Fold this protein.
Amino acid sequence: MEETKRFLTTFMTAISTCSLYSRAHASVEELARKAHEILTGLIKERLELMVLEGELVVNRNPVRGLGLHGANLMKRFKRKGLSRVDFLKGITFIELKQFIADIADPDRPVMTYPHIKTGAVDVRVGGIMTGVEIDVDSVASEQIEGVKRLYRGISSFKPLDTRGLEEIVLNFIVSFKKEASILKLISPVSAYSEYTYTHATNVAVLSMFQAETLGFRDELLHDIGVAALLHDVGKLFIPREILEKKGSLDEEEWNEIKMHTLHGARYLAKIDGLTPLAPVVALEHHLRYDGEGYPELGSHNGRQHFCSQIVAISDFFDALRSKRPYKRDWQIEEIIALMKNSAGREFNPVLVDNFSRAFTLALKQG
Ligand SMILES: [Fe+2]
Ligand SMILES: [Fe+2]
């Protein structure tokens, strides 16, 4: 059953990667190849995959513990009107890869294949399985392109591509399971123009890292990733001359920059189907633990949501770590020391403590 889970996870990741990039992307090829290899090892005569009452069932055994991968696969199948897929002995790599592309693209009909039969379910079964090992080759740095595409699609006139967002965050989760060292997942800024996307990606990675070490799982871990990825979205509504200005900013320019919290919250609050954490975090990530910071919220009382406190720490860490026109970059130990200094005032002390401990541990392991 472990191999079945490995196949489903790889298969789903290939679908996610294919819809995030394109079917021609090297990782899609690689993941499809891996999925094909596992699948051919599994098939005796046929491998029967069904969706029955919200569960994935393979060769009449329910497969549990696939988390978001399982949920996503079922969602994808449902969109295509599929509740049963049979993979037959002799299936070729090209067939599987083509099928992955069919499922990944919402507008593309599922073709007919000699060794893949699709349709509706006709049986009912039982049985329990637990535990899963996720094994995938995507890392956060590869996600930056996806984040860039997502960010470029944002404007007051267009809805946010929430599906693309879902795929990015799912891939982060996959990367975490695979990569023990958090530092390998956060990317250096290669150019000023890339800062927005790199920063968004890093803050999402760091926030999910904190959340996971604090015991957040599944939906909540996913939602904090989404919220962190979008925390600075409001900056897209601020003039570039101010955002990228090399010298120091005057008061008026600072006030303009501070507005990104309100712009972001306003934009995100209007998006259907987005986690409510996203506008909350966009609004509050520059508030401080002690109620200072901005924006001034009057009746709100200045209390930050716990998730905003997590994102505030990631934001501080990545901003200092990255080279910006107006800052030098800092060493990790220096940043953690600074954070500890501000614990209780700027940051939640419990979170600072957790971050420092988890990060130091990850550094040692990496
Ligand atoms: Fe910000
Ligand atoms: Fe930020």
